[in-house]
Amino acid sequence: MSTGAFPAPDSKAWAEFYRAAIFEADQSRRAERIRLAETVASQRKRDLGTCEGDHIEEEHALDDALYVLRVLRTTSREQSAD
What is the pTM assigned to this prediction? Predict the structure, then answer.
């Protein structure tokens, strides 16, 4: 089921949220974009766990994206503290 800004569970739209977060230049908007991308990617990862079939490539892509988002969140906090 799709709700508002979140993509449908069978969608790879999480990648759009991910790209929006990593390419956000406005420091004041970056934290929200990261949070949203993490939420959408985490939900997609949970959804894949209940789907039949082999989704290993997308699962790896989600793991990589979530790692990059954590690093980006950490470095963004450090930059705003300077």
Answer: 0.80
